[in-house]
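Researcher: Re-running this chain for the archive, since the previous output was lost when a drive failed. Same request as before.
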Amino acid sequence: MINRRSFLRCAALAPFAALSPSSFAASRGSYIDAHVHVWTPDTERFPLAESFSKEKDMVPASFTPNELFAECRPQKVGRVVLIQMSFYKFDNRYMLAMMAKHRGVFGGVAIVDETKPDVCETMKGLAAKKVRGFRIYTSPEKAEGWLQSEGMKNMWAYGADAGLAMCLLTGPDSLPAIQRMCAAYPKTRVVIDHFARLGMNGPVRNEDVEQLRRLAEFPNVYVKTSAFYALGQKTAPYADLTPLIQTLRDTFGAKRLMWASDCPYQVQGEHHYADSIGLIRDRLNFLGAEDKEWMLRKTAEKVFFS
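Model: Regenerated structure tokens:
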């Protein structure tokens, strides 16, 4: 028996099933989702990195582009920034294969090993395949050492020269060290994922918001308003995040904010894709039409598709 969600997914996919990659790109909607992970259950062709388990770590067991399209196309999201999934680690092949298959639909954020002496050459090769950012898992201990790390300094310097973004998955406790790195490399594009995860483990704290706001002094720092399912009250329609979004709009300006879903996690349990985009698109009265245009398309387009 087909459940309701499976039926809706099949129905949503039907108009696109016969499209070639080029015609698929031409059919894209007007919005960009700036943060999505995809993976395949085919671990023979695309094996997981050592220490990761198919049974434990691949939850859900599958989230392919077709499964994503069934969620995002009904909301007129036509382009998506793919974020390399952690359990593939430095093996970016599946993400790159999906970018090539659906040319023009996907941007990419890869993961590279900054300890390798050829890290800049690796970044250059990935950039030739339309990768425009590099994910960095951030903790206070790691971030404190960046200014002494030759590999990290090389990454940030090359990113500045090549217009490639450092995309930081961080918590608020790493923001002071990130601020120092931004001061050392002010020309490097930096993207802070998921509001720096403010409010992930409890209420949003004013001191953490102020620390994030300090990054606005660097014109190349951007913030993703994303992962609503994981922050604050963690309940749709996510209205409790309104003051935080308004503060960041007032501080950074909409031109440095971008909406993202963080799928597939945004479509698990009681959470739904429409509620995520709907918060920005439909519910926040302080956002004007131009603000929404930047947050839902133009900022991500500038950073990840230019």
